[in-house]
Amino acid sequence: MVLKTFYISFLILLFSSCYKGEEVDLIVHNAQIHTMDNGKIVQAMAIKNGKIIELGANRQILNKYRAKKEIDAKGKEIYPGFTDSHGHILSYIDKKLSVDLTGSTSYLEMVYKIKNYLKKDSPKIIIGKGWDQSLWENKELPNNTILNRYFPKIPVCLYRIDEHAVLVNNAMLDLLKLDTIKEIQGGEIVKNNNKPTGILIDNAIPLLEKHLPKHSKIKKIEAIKEIENELLSYGITGVHEAGISYEDLIFFQSLVKDNVLSLNIYAMLLPEPKNIDFAKKNGPYKNKNLSIRSFKVFGDGSLGSGGALLKKGYTDDTSNYGQMLTSIKKIEELSMVCESTGYQLNTHAIGDSMCHVIIEIYKELNEVNKDHRSRIEHVQVIDKIDLVKLGLYGIYPSIQPSHAVSDYRWAEKKLGKKRMKNAYSYKNILESAGIITIGSDFPIESPNPFKTIYAAVKRKNTNELPTKGFIKDQAISLNDCIKGITIWAAISSFDEKRLGSLEEGKDATFTILEKPIVVSDKFIDNQSWKTFILGIEKYSRENL
Ligand SMILES: [Zn+2]
Predict the structure, then answer these.
(1) CA of 242 to the centre of ligand 1 (A)
(2) What proportion of the chain, given as a percentage, has pLDDT over 90?
(3) Secondary structure tally for the chain: helices H, strands E
(4) CA of residue 163 to ligand 1 center, whole Å
């Protein structure tokens, strides 16, 4: 009898361990997993070696696998890790290591912030970031008179929020030796009565760079870890870094080599000679979480500083049409480099004229390679005639909905009522292209994807402005917006085999959100409860 009981329990044990056969690293169950794979929602998934092994109902997964670790998601929503398709980690580092002028409501508030900063730090040159004169009483670009009064000796460089204009004092201008500089293509040293006002625009800005002190690697790494943690706290696991120099490329390579950075980085190279050599030598490059196979070129400037290239003059300054920052010839040469190296071309184009120019260049690319996936970054003003060509020539629009609900205050003043029909027209853009990739353009805007979603779907900022929504008929659906930060973001960076949706064989890179994503009439903030990259927990609110 004893023997028989022993025999039966042995059989049960054998049977159950066979049944619960394969050992995996992690099971997540009791969740609402939005796979972004054709709308499929499941309850559980099994993960091994950083990849998803199987998705399905709770019982199906829990019965089939044994796991070293199990997470009960308590019914929470899970999404593929979000991607910010247009961000600037490097500028965010600079911003963290300089005076933060964001949100200053007057020139004097800016001075006050600098004075406060100087109580804690004593730099050789003061660098500030984030002013926006459209928040001030006088909304015109400032001059440096006040700055010279408060800071007569120490050089000061203050970047406008979009970094397309910088305000510098006379002590800084002295360093630049302007009398040796002739004309600047695609840039301007603004003058009044032949004297510089202290404003430098677009291609005049690099004149400053060689005079600015470099941050130490240690300080940069400290800042980047802070930034990574902030992004992970929103469920962001990847960034399309919109424009890096060769020096930055080396920096990113070293971060990835030393495992300092976990985020997936899709870095767009600026078209400088060393970067072009890199592309020619390496072709599409991938090392761990760093992927490089695109160039970012500045077509025009920004609308806020009057640099975006328009077909007709600015409504508030009719003689100004904006400007091209890179010549058509140079963009065409770069597009040939892209063609021969298998790289993607991502062009910053804001004005309707610039969008037209770049679409015509992409048309030629499309004739040689239908899968070029060339992107237009921003697409803020686009004519109806050009709009249809997005789909026709396989062009990928890359949009930042938060810009729309920041710019609404002055956009009509610059563009006029009639042209507003072609501005921030994300719904039309999506209808034409069939795909959009979505980002925030941080640190110009907040990287918080829930703010981006609110801006895209409700066309309002988090102050609930404008009250009726900005050009409300151009809102896109919640589902399309989430696609724009997951699966479409992956496709727009040639990474759809690995990222963008939760499917068997793909990366176990996902976020478990604190609250479900809903779009109600008031902004509800949200955050990640836990964020995983390749099956490893990189962020948890429980650790806070
Ligand atoms: Zn940008």
Answers:
(1) 6
(2) 88
(3) 19, 25
(4) 9
The pLDDT score that the predictor gives to residue 17 is 46
The alpha carbon of 32 and the centre of ligand 1 are apart by a number of angstroms equal to: 34
Q: How far is the CA of 385 from the centre of ligand 1 (A)?
A: 26
Q: 378 C-alpha vs ligand 1 centroid, how far in Å?
A: 8
User: What is the arithmetic mean of pLDDT over 207-217?
Assistant: 90
Interval between CA 224 and ligand 1 midpoint (Å)? 18
Rounded to whole angstroms, the Cα distance separating 183 from 63 reads 72
CA of 209 to the centre of ligand 1 (A): 18
Expressed in angstroms and rounded, the spacing between residue 69 Cα and the centre of ligand 1 is: 40
* Cα end-to-end distance, the chain, whole Å: 56
- Ligand 1 centre and the CA of 153: distance in Å? 32
Q: In angstroms, rounded to a whole number, what is the distance separating the alpha carbons of residues 264 and 494?
A: 13
Q: Stretch 94-121: mean pLDDT, rounded?
A: 94
Ligand 1 centre to CA of 85 (Å) is: 10
pLDDT at 62 over 70: yes
Q: Could you report the per-residue pLDDT of 294-351, keeping only the tens digit for each?
A: 999 999 999 988 999 999 999 999 999 999 999 999 999 999 999 999 999 999 999 9
Q: Domains in the chain, please, with CATH?
A: 83-87+215-536 (3.20.20.140), 98-209 (3.10.310.70)
| Ligand 1: centre distance to CA 304 (Å) | 13
CA 379 to ligand 1 centroid distance, Å? 12
Count of C-beta atoms within a 10 Å radius of residue 523: 18
Residue 53 Cα to ligand 1 midpoint, Å, equals 37
Q: Which long-range contacts (CB under 8 A, 24 or more apart) does 143-152 make?
A: 143/167, 143/192, 143/197, 143/198, 143/199, 144/168, 144/169, 144/170, 144/173, 144/197, 144/198, 144/199, 146/107, 146/108, 146/111, 147/111, 147/198, 148/198, 150/111, 150/114, 150/115, 151/114, 151/126
Instruction: Quickly state the pLDDT bin for 19 (edges 50, 70, 90).
Output: low
Question: Which of 152, 147, 143 is CA-nearest to residue 112?
Answer: 147
The predicted model gives 188-200 an average pLDDT of 93
- On the question of pLDDT at 13 being above 70, the answer is no
Calculate how far, in angstroms, residue 88's C-alpha sits from the geometric centre of ligand 1: 7
Largest CA distance in the chain: 109
Task: Count CB atoms within 10 A of the CB of residue 167.
Answer: 27
Higher pLDDT, 176 or 488: 488
